[in-house]
Write a structure and sequence with these properties.
The structure is a single chain. The protein is α+β, with helices and mostly antiparallel strands and 137 residues long. It contains 2 helices and 5 strands. The protein folds into 2 domains: 41 residues; 93 residues, Nucleic acid-binding proteins (OB fold (Dihydrolipoamide Acetyltransferase, E2P), Beta Barrel). A 5-stranded antiparallel β-sheet has the order 3-2-1-4-5. The longest helix is centred in the first third of the chain and has 39 residues. It starts with a helix and ends with a strand.
Length: 137
């Protein structure tokens, strides 16, 4: 067998190994992305919070997100002791909710939210997503 024939018989094996590696790598990446997407979509908790809506903004350089802050308030524990106010930071992905929150700013509201395990970077800065907002009369 000449050297040229020996070199040609080795070339397909290298290509075959590379194709197999590329296929396994691609399947691994697809599986990883699927698992990450599944984890980001899981709702960890859901509930409501009420307080004074103190901040609503649209943030981001490339991916614009709707962010807000709710002042839940402090607690008077008697004898002149006062627990400082608690701020609840949240995000929303829905423009109509953001528009209604702009009108409710400075008023007492109730927010219905859900907390995800991990959020995608284009969804918002927090893991809390508001699905509904209502004004307290």
């Amino acid at each position: 067998m000449s050297q040229e024939q020996a070199a040609n018989s080795l070339a397909p094996k290298k290509k075959n190994k590379f194709k197999r590696f590329a296929l396994f790598f691609l399947l691994f990446v697809i599986l990883f992305l699927f698992i990450y997407y599944f984890i980001c979509g899981i709702t960890y908790s859901e509930g409501t919070r009420s307080g004074v809506l103190i901040k609503v903004s649209k943030k981001g350089y490339v991916f614009k997100t709707f962010e807000g802050e709710l002042n839940i308030g402090g607690v008077n524990q008697g004898e002149g002791t006062f627990m400082p106010m608690t701020i609840f930071k949240f995000s929303t992905t829905k423009k109509p909710i953001y528009d209604s929150m702009e009108n409710y700013q400075g008023h007492k509201v109730v927010l219905k939210y859900r907390q995800v395990v991990k959020n995608f970077f284009w969804q918002g800065e927090t893991d809390y997503f508001v699905d509904h907002v209502s004004l307290v009369k």
